[in-house]
Design brief:
256 residues; alpha+beta; five-stranded mixed β-sheet; five-stranded antiparallel β-sheet; 6 helices; disordered N terminus
C-alpha cells in the first residue's frame, strides 16, 4: 500500500465512523440516554446507542462454573447503619441499623410509580418468587474483577407482578446510603437482571448489600446497587442530582 492509498483508506474509515455515529445519534427507540446533548458525555451516548443497535436485546453475559468462583471484595458502602462509616445517611441509616439487628424480618421494599399495582415486598415474599442463580463476572470500574454466584428473583418477574404501565421507560433504585441510580426498561427486563438476596450459596452478606441488591450483569459493577429500599418505575429519566452517578463523574450507561 502506498502512502496515498493509506491516507485514503484512513479517510474512508473516518467517514464510515462518522456516518455510523450519525446513525447512532439519530437512532430510533423509545428511550434516550441522559447524556444526549452533553458534549462531555457524547461517548457515553454513542456506547449506549451502539449496544442497543448492534447487540440483541436479550443477549446474555457469560456465565461460569462453580470452579471459577473467586474471592470478591466489598467496596464503597459496607454498612449503611454505621454512623462512623462511609455512606451513612442519617435519614435512613438508623432505620437500616434497626432492621439489621432484627435480621431484616421487618425489612420491606416498595415498588411504585408507573405501575398498575404498587406494592411492598418482604424478603420472604421475594424468596417465594421464581428464583434465578447465575455465576457471573463482576467487573469493577476500579480495574479489578471477580466471579461469584448470585441468587435472586428476576426484576422482570417483580415488574410483571406489579404491572408496568405502557409509558414506563426507566426503573429507578434507591438505597439506604446516599446513592440512587436507574436503568432503562431493556436492562430491567433482561433475564440476568435480578434482585439478589444470595451470594455463593448463602444469604447476601452485609458488606455486599444485605438484604437485597441489584445485579445488572451487562453493565459495570457500580450499576449493581447495594442495600435497596425502594424501586420506582418512571416514564422519564431522572439523574438523582448529587446522589446520582452523573453529577459524581460516572456514566449513567456503563455497558460491557
Amino acid at each position: 500500500m502506498t502512502d496515498t492509498d493509506e491516507i485514503w483508506s484512513r479517510r474512508r474509515l473516518l467517514r464510515s465512523a462518522v456516518g455510523a455515529s450519525g446513525l447512532l445519534l439519530a437512532g430510533c427507540g423509545q428511550t434516550e440516554p441522559p447524556t444526549y446533548g452533553n458534549l462531555l458525555r457524547m461517548g457515553d451516548y454513542v456506547t449506549y446507542k451502539a449496544h442497543r443497535l448492534f447487540l440483541p436485546e436479550q443477549s446474555l453475559a457469560r456465565e461460569y462454573n462453580r470452579s471459577d468462583i473467586s474471592p470478591i471484595p466489598a467496596t464503597g458502602t459496607v454498612d449503611p447503619g454505621n454512623p462512623d462509616a462511609y455512606g451513612f445517611n442519617p435519614t435512613y441509616g438508623e432505620n437500616y441499623a434497626r432492621l439489621h439487628r432484627g435480621k431484616f424480618a421487618d425489612w420491606r421494599i416498595s415498588v411504585e410509580g408507573s405501575v398498575v399495582r404498587p406494592a411492598t415486598f418482604s424478603l420472604a415474599d421475594l424468596q417465594r418468587m421464581p428464583a434465578r442463580t447465575q455465576i457471573t463476572r463482576h467487573t469493577c470500574e476500579e480495574g479489578w474483577s471477580a466471579i461469584a454466584e448470585w441468587t435472586g428473583v428476576p426484576l422482570s418477574h417483580v415488574l410483571q407482578t406489579v404491572g408496568i404501565l405502557p409509558e414506563a421507560r426507566y426503573v429507578q433504585f434507591f438505597a439506604y446510603d446516599y446513592f440512587a441510580d436507574g436503568i432503562d426498561m431493556l436492562d430491567a427486563l433482561h433475564p440476568q437482571t435480578i434482585l439478589a438476596y444470595g451470594l455463593n450459596g448463602r444469604s447476601l452478606p452485609l458488606a455486599h448489600g444485605a438484604p437485597l441488591r441489584l445485579r445488572v450483569e451487562r453493565q459495570i459493577g457500580y450499576k449493581s446497587m447495594k442495600f435497596l429500599r425502594r424501586i420506582v418505575v418512571t416514564d422519564k429519566f431522572e439523574d438523582h442530582g448529587v446522589f446520582g452517578p452523573l453529577q459524581n463523574g460516572w456514566s449513567w450507561y456503563a455497558g460491557i
